[in-house]
Amino acid sequence: MGKFQQLISKIQSKSMEKALIYKEKEEFKDVYWVLKNANSKQFYEFSFNMEDFPNIEIKNIGKLEETGLVFENNKLSGIPGVANVYNLDIEFIHTGDTHTVEIKKVQLLINANPKDLWKNIPSDIDDTFYKPDEDSYKGKFVDKKIVIASKRGRSHAHEGKFREDDFSVRNLPADWSIIAVSDGAGSAKLAREGSRIATASISQFFDSGTILEKIEKNIRIYYSSETTSEAQHNIIRLLYESVLYSYNTLEQTAGEHNLSLHDLNATLIFTLVKKFNFGYVILSFGVGDCPINLISSDFSEVQLLNQMDVGEFGGGTRFITTKEIFNDQIVSRFGMTCVDDFSHLVLMTDGIYDPKFATENKLEDLESWKMFFNDLNGSNDDSLKVDFINDREIDQQLLNWGEFWSKGNHDDRTLAIIY
């Protein structure tokens, strides 16, 4: 082959190579790529599959700044920011033409975080019955510790309404402690005040050395004698008097403010606890759909300590303001439990119970409780942990955890844990 023919062949070869490079670039530009949708404030990752384009290298992705994502090793990742449709520039080269950077256009859709669609309007601080939108507490309880967090639900925050849940915790004379939790009825005009009065009045009733002395005397008889019926009757009578005291306080408040008693409708659960030389005695009461659960010291057993007004009471929730509860069946609402030790004593409103347990039978299912405490330990979408060991900030941690997202569950949330 002559020199001229060799030159012609070389030119043809280069022309064919350029044509092939051009063809492969255009094919890459033309291929329709759909990036997986991202969700605002949730970790995102998308890998570019380049197997069909062995000669194409992505060098960079332009216009990423506003998305909150980064590009590295053929992968987009990060926590996206503001929801929007973003037009991105895929900057690429062909291995046969490394000096020329080409652009391929793609779109990335970042969906809005459902939490961001809810408004958080402060409640009216000048209202006569104002209540803070959240509250928390940590401290001593008998010889253990307690943490409580109560948050206004998204449904109330969206409309600037008040938190209707409430709680009261108090260390009483003679080494007794009490925790009371209440959920104000959404249909009641002043449910927030009803829940506050219900919990405060129960704590106030038992803040009496005389009453606690009577209870303790009968407890010692009950757990040391074969003849226990009279002692049990005396204990239940004193517990009954506390519930009646709460009812009467609510009734009196309604009269003072020209309200119907049902304007103050609220559930009520409480536990009165003391450690004796023979074990922890836990006296309990419940009306409504808020559970009290006791978990054994080795986490091998869980007990529901109160009667829940669900099931046969469906559609007719009972409240501390429901006079009909003061009948012969009220005895079944009181509980008396004695254990050598326990790991956790938990009280909650349905704002926690509904999304985390869903049904009453799961409240006595050990696996459901293990999942619940794993959730508290950080196994959740937000990786938020409530640290029961290094518990210096446990009250704020529990408040933060209470912001969890659960579709359709936006009620007030109150959770009390003795540990």
From TrEMBL:
Residues 152-376 form the PPM-type phosphatase domain. Gene3D superfamilies: PPM-type phosphatase domain. It comes from the Bacteria. Pfam families: PP2C_2. InterPro entries: PPM-type-like_dom_sf, PPM-type_phosphatase-like_dom. This is Protein phosphatase 2C domain-containing protein. It comes from Chryseobacterium phosphatilyticum. The lineage of its organism: Bacteria, Pseudomonadati, Bacteroidota, Flavobacteriia, Flavobacteriales.
